[in-house]
Amino acid sequence: MTGPTPPELPDLPVSAAMPALRGALETGNAAVLVAPPGAGKTTLVPLALLDAAWREGKKIVLLEPRRLAARAAARRMAELLGEEPGETVGYAMRMENRTSARTKILVVTEGVFSRMLLDDPELPGISAVLFDEFHERSLDGDFGLALALDVQSALRPDLRLLVMSATLDGARVASLLGSAPVIESEGRAFPVELRYDERPAGVAIEDAMAKAIRAALAGEKGSILAFLPGRREILRTAERLEGRLGADTAIVPLYGMLDGKAQDAAIKPAPAGRRKVVLATSIAETSITIDGVRVVIDSGLSRLPRFEPASGLTRLETVRASRASADQRSGRAGRTQPGVAIRLWRAEQTAALPAFTPPEILEADLSGLTLDCAAFGVADPASLSFLDPPPAPALAEARTLLRALDAIDDAGRLTPQGESMRKLALPVRLAHMVAEAAKAGHARDAAELAVLLTERGLGGDGVDLERRLSRFRGEKSPRANAARQLALRLARSAGSSSDAAPDTAGMAGALLLHAWPDRIAKARGTRGRFVLANGSGAALDAADPLAGEPFLVVADLTGKAQNARITAAAAVGEADIRAAMGDRIVTRRQAAFDRDHRAVRMRETVQLGAITLSERMLPAPSGTDANRAIIEALREHGLALLPWSKENESLRRRLDWLHRGLGAPWPDVSDAALIARLDEWLEPFLTGAANFAAIDASVLSAGLISLVPHDLQRRIDTLAPTHFDAPSGSRVPVRYDEQGPVLAIRVQELFGLDRHPSIAG
Q1: Which residues pair with 592 in a beta bridge?
Q2: What is the pLDDT of residue 305?
Q3: What whole-number distance in Å separates Cα of residue 297 and Cα of residue 222?
Q4: Which of 172, 321, 338, 406 is geometrically suited to a Cys-Cys bond with 417, CB 3.0 to 4.6 A?
Q5: Is omega for the bond preceding 309 within 30 degrees of 0, making it cis?
Q6: Exposed, middle or buried by CB within 10 Å (0-12, 13-18, 19+), for 302?
Q7: What is the three-class DSSP state of 126?
Q8: In what order do the strands lie in the sheet with 599-608?
Q9: CB 110 within 8 A of CB 93
Q10: Residue 2 has pLDDT above 60, yes or no
Q11: Shortest CA distance to 303 belongs to which of 285, 322, 316?
């Protein structure tokens, strides 16, 4: 069976590699295509495979790491066919779907493909999966390939897998694919002149970038693509350029949280006679071509997520871009014509850059991956075929979290709660929040909050999630409408039977308790300073309205774990915390020693992790409780608290001498020994008073004597007498000290003594 005749395709460098690629997929089920940017692999390869006999009328799925790239690839392929997206070529992503019964090439984001595979591992109706831009090594991309390899080996040996990349080690991937053939293609790139313009020390990146852009506009033709680490730097750079560029030049931002229309506008060519400056994150490094760009200015910085297993936090960290990223960025200047790439660092610093950006699987929170693996029947994710195995500490942290959320059992198997969470296609904490909220009839509220947190930019960018949720519900943009529809679908998946719009307010904090119980935060004195239940510290700007709240639930932080900055949170009441976290709240009663009154008091503390919810002093204990409190106070503060009399001290010194002089079974009565045996010699003789002054001296004497074996007790006075009877008739006290017993007596009183004074023989 043969497929349809492929369309007339443009002649691009990858065209020369197509016969070898088609042959590899005719005779085998896997291949690797290494082709540099501009070779045409993203758009030409899927179209060229339409007439392959092995396709048998089934779809070809093309995976892209980002929504922007997925839309752009689908539109370009549809354009080559003279169609609109949704016909022969369609695309599907989280909040957008352009497909039909006619769709033969389906472009999806990597996360969508993983969901497809988990929902039906046999991938019915799919003949091939093409992993584009695999060198980006996203977690979803690595996971999707690992699952696809598992399916191919167990269920679908006919499933074709093609990994396409610009800068990847093809041989390493080929080995993962069972020694698949590697096909290499030449690229098509115009010459790019590299220039270096070092950013001076102390100059903010947005100031240096704005200056470089103005200089490039004055000295070069064409549009400019400027790479910055994140949205914040993009907006600040735009502010510095506003009103300082010619009327023919537009400033266009390009970052992940923009809606689809704004992203699409950024990659469209500027109208005739006009130029544009595209201020972009690394989203523009690969997969797309921005027509008209012939100047690239690279800040040399990227913002990457870093997961800290010790704290359970993922934080964004601004780092130096890798050499591979720098090369990708520079190459954007030569996609359609000769260009110029300006790097804001010294030329010799390039060699010190890391060779590649670390694969996300080595840096990410793996809780979602672990939950998906459990749903796939894989208890240990490390058993799948990953190019880089997931790190053991991150896997251990993921399992701990999932067990705490009741998503997996001790053997790593999916629980009913975990199955409910997995259906929601949300990060595990947010999935747990929606699943728990559904039980109380608040699935819609929780789903909207979850979408707000995963689709950045909705409802503004303030810290207060309650306010952002309120604004989001009133937004009229297409992106906001699509997000609310997504939330409605999530609520239905969680079991909500009502489509009525939520009208509850003030619930954000109570809902977030089910997502981040370890990030409940309590104010700790200084306005804006908080301590989290997991023991970390965090802070808000003192001017922020949330800075004065007694309790928050923190959804997002940046910076180091002990001094992090709160970027998203909601206020929560102590009553809500106690109601939702009852199984995590611990009440402790501890004895507290009052030195001034030499008495023991009881303190009750109610704690949630590292947070003390409440603390109060209780009435003085009595009876057994008082006795135990006395013993604990002595263990902490020492025996000096006891009311030792001269007689008690004398008895103790005599027993000490007997132990040192005669050894066992005479007891050791040193401080350390007595403290270790308080339960034996003191507690049985206490009378239930919580005050040390109420302990009678006779209690101490009786306790000390109880340590002596019964048959020796009557010999204490004989072996270690308190006095010496002199021939003169005097009774002279014997002093026991560290050197031994001492008798201080006048010689005259010893006249008539017929033997030397001795003790214990």
Answers
A1: 601
A2: 78
A3: 13
A4: 406
A5: no
A6: buried
A7: strand
A8: 585-594, 599-608, 611-618
A9: no
A10: no
A11: 316
Cβ proximity of 55 and 49 under 8 Å: yes
pLDDT in tens, 384-435: 999 999 999 889 999 999 998 999 999 999 999 999 998 898 889 999 999 9
CA distance 161 to 18: 15
Please give the structure tokens belonging to residue 43.
């758009």
Residue 682 has φ and ψ, to the nearest 5°, of: -110, -50
pLDDT at 3: 47
The one-letter amino acid code at 165 reads S
Residue 360 main-chain phi, psi, to 5 deg: -60, -30
Residue owning tokens 């991938």: 123
Query: Which structure tokens are listed for 503?
Result: 């009208």
403-407-412 Cα angle (round to 5): 65
pLDDT confidence tier of residue 723, bands split at 50, 70 and 90? confident
Using alpha carbons, select from 253, 308, 304 the residue that is nearest to residue 277.
Answer: 253
Share of the chain above pLDDT 90, in %: 57
Q: Can you state the angle between helices 367-375 and 110-119, rounded to 10 degrees? A: 30
- CA atoms of 42 and 64, how far apart (whole Å): 9
Alpha carbon distances (Å) from 295 to 117, 213, 225, 263, 292: 41, 9, 6, 19, 9
pLDDT of residue 1: 42
Q: State the Cα–Cα distance between residues 533 and 608, nearest whole angstrom.
A: 6
Tell which residue, 308, 697, 369, has the closest CA to residue 534: 308
Tokens matching residue 587: 């009440």
| 8 Å CB contact between 159 and 128 | yes
Torsion sign over Cα 525, 530, 534, 537:
negative
Q: Return d(Cα 472, Cα 480) in angstroms, integer.
A: 7
